[in-house]
Design a protein that fits this description.
Blueprint lengths: L1 H28 L19 E6 L3 E3 L4 E7 L8 E5 L2 E2 L1 E5 L3 E5 L5 E10 L9 E6 L2 E3 L7 E8 L5 E7 L7 E5 L5 E6 L10 E4 L5 E4 L4 E5 L7 E5 L7 E6 L5 E13 L5 E16 L2 E8 L2 E11 L2 E2 L3 E5 L12 E6 L5 E5 L5 E4 L5 E3 L9 E6 L4 E6 L8 E6 L14
């Protein structure tokens, strides 16, 4: 029996020795460091510290640029890592005390922002920050209600002219109150047209609209069917857009040889201006007109001397000659911010172009809009609205844009 037991143990010995050898091998592997951002043999930096951020409270997701102040950053931008809830920002510039960062496309009321620096073995302190949507599609329209123009009254209520894509006779104007409620405000225009090409609040709270005809329609305060407020005598006239000046006069244009002024007493006067005018805006006592003349897309302006006199026209911005007007892209809408920036709604790849008072131009929020931009509205705060034409499988939509600044006055609704 003893001999058999010794023989059995002898047979187990090779397996035991093999196990010991494997353990030794694996123990030796544990001495090799795991690859890491940090190299302990190269020394260690102190942890980065965040002391401030600009803007201080929030930025626009995907396009916002923030400046982070602090200490113990790296002057080599590739050695800094800024995280917003774990999503990396893009480091644009770096010094030991400041980082300039483009934020990721993450919309959230409270993200945790922290920084890692190469060779620092700890993250920075964490701060809470808001990433807000700069652009969003307005909800509230049914799938078969395609918006064409939006405008706002002095109380902030929004009015939208829409076409019912299933039953055109059910088109009309909707009212969206400030409390979020929606109601039918006016049926479709009388006759053939199903929508308005222009719609604005005018003196007394009436809504005024154009239907690419020679008539100017008026919708009563509180809603109801529109009436013909004024009809231009020239039967060849087609009016596309209009705006009110500070004295309540209405200025309208279209594909004609004249623009038209209509006083509150309904008296009409024509002023020579030959072009296919698609947008009209009054700003700082000038009439701004956007459209096409001789194959070129431009914005012109004429000074308002009085209700009965305008000054000579001036070419304000040549869109066709700009970097954004290549290929014959057109302008379909213009409006102004309170600081004098002019927004152009276009069919260019960058669908909204900002023209600054010095007449330099740049895209608004590059990459966030698709062409074409048909019409602008602006609420009583810092949100501009644009009608985005259906294209590429996307539906026609009303898009809300946070510009962080108010509009220039819309005199018809009582701005000053």
């Amino acid at each position: 029996m003893r001999t058999n037991k010794l023989q059995s143990n002898a047979k187990k010995l090779p397996a035991i020795l093999a196990a010991i050898l494997l353990v030794a091998l694996f123990s030796g592997c544990e001495d090799d460091p795991t690859p890491s951002l940090f190299n302990p043999e190269a020394g260690s930096r102190p942890a980065p510290v965040i002391t401030g951020i600009t803007p201080p409270d929030q930025a626009f997701a995907g396009i916002g640029i923030v400046v982070i102040e602090g200490s113990n950053f790296s002057a080599v931008k590739e050695e800094n890592f800024v995280y917003f809830d774990g999503q990396p920002g893009e480091i644009l510039e770096a010094s030991t005390t400041q980082l300039r960062v483009k934020v990721p496309n993450l919309v959230k009321d409270a993200v945790s922002l922290k920084i890692a620096v190469h060779k620092a073995d700890k993250f920075s302190n964490i701060i809470s920050y808001k990433l807000e949507a700069a652009v969003s599609v307005v909800e509230g329209l049914d799938r078969d209600q395609a918006p064409w123009v939006a405008t706002f009254d002095a109380q902030g209520n929004m009015y939208v002219s829409f076409v019912n894509t299933n039953v055109s006779s059910q088109s009309g104007v909707l009212k969206f109150a400030t409390d979020g409620t929606r109601s039918s405000y006016s049926p479709k225009p009388s006759g053939t047209p199903t929508r308005y090409s222009a719609l604005k609040v005018g003196p007394g709270g009436f809504l005024y609209g154009l239907t690419i005809e020679r008539r100017i329609s008026q919708i009563p305060v509180g809603g109801g069917a529109a009436v013909n407020w004024v009809v231009i005598p020239n039967t060849a006239v087609r009016l596309y857009d209009f705006d009110f000046d500070r004295d309540g006069n209405l200025w309208a244009g279209g594909n004609n040889t004249d623009i038209y002024r209509v006083k509150p007493d309904k008296s009409i006067q024509a002023f020579p201006f030959a072009a296919n005018v698609r947008s009209v805006r009054i700003f700082n006592d000038y009439i701004y007109l956007a459209g096409n003349r001789g194959g070129s897309e431009k914005v012109w302006r004429l000074p308002i001397v009085s209700a009965d006199q305008v000054g000579p026209e001036e070419e304000y911005f040549d869109f066709s000659a700009s970097a954004y007007g290549a290929g014959g892209a057109g302008i379909f809408a213009i409006t102004f911010a309170s600081d004098g920036d002019m927004c152009l709604g276009t069919e260019a790849a960058e669908a909204i172009i900002v023209v600054h008072p010095d007449r330099s131009a740049e895209p608004l929020y590059p990459g966030l809009f698709q062409p074409k931009s048909l019409n602008f509205g602006w609420d009583t705060g810092q949100f501009m609205y644009v009608i985005r034409e259906a294209s590429g499988g996307s539906e026609q939509a009303l898009v809300k844009i946070n510009l962080l600044k108010n509009s220039a006055p819309y005199y018809g609704r009582g701005d000053n």
